[in-house]
Design a protein that fits this description.
It contains 4 helices and no strands. The protein has helices at 2-14, 19-32, 38-64, 69-136. α2 crosses α4 and α3 (38-64) packs antiparallel against α4. The longest helix is centred in the last third of the chain and has 68 residues, at 69-136.
């Protein structure tokens, strides 16, 4: 009796989910998962574009004004400040992109745990019950 139970437990440990159940779970998740909002991508792109436009505008303005020795030093300082500002804006944009990716990952995890695990668990329970009934006969 105990050997039968051990054998049954060993078979259940090797049991895998049928491919049709996995396919159905993937299909349901794909059908119920909303497409990512364009707003998540628009914000970082807008910030990057604004930084480029500001930098180009400042470069054109500085070229149009005459450069003297004093202005040259001031221009170098402004360029350094602009580069630092662009680096800060890039850091912010990358942080926003990272946040969007983390949110998407959390949402995927929730969808998988809520919608895929239950059908898989039920299929495994059904298979186990059928095997137990078969061995009792």
């Amino acid at each position: 009796m105990q050997e039968d139970l051990r054998g049954l437990a060993h078979e259940l440990r090797q049991e895998t989910c049928p491919q049709r159940v996995i396919d159905e779970a993937v299909r349901r998740i794909a059908a119920e998962t909303p497409a990512p909002s364009r707003l998540h991508y628009a914000i970082p792109a807008t910030l990057a574009l604004a930084g480029v436009v500001i930098l180009c505008g400042l470069l054109i303005r500085s070229r149009l004004t005459g450069d003297s020795a004093g202005r040259q030093r001031q221009w170098v300082e402004q360029q350094t400040q602009r580069r630092m500002q662009v680096a800060r804006e890039a850091e912010t944009a990358l942080g926003l992109i990272g946040t969007v990716l983390l949110d998407a990952g959390a949402h995927s995890e929730t969808v998988i745990s809520d919608r895929a695990v239950r059908p898989l668990r039920n299929a495994l329970q059904t298979a186990k019950n059928r095997i137990i009934r078969h061995t009792e006969l």
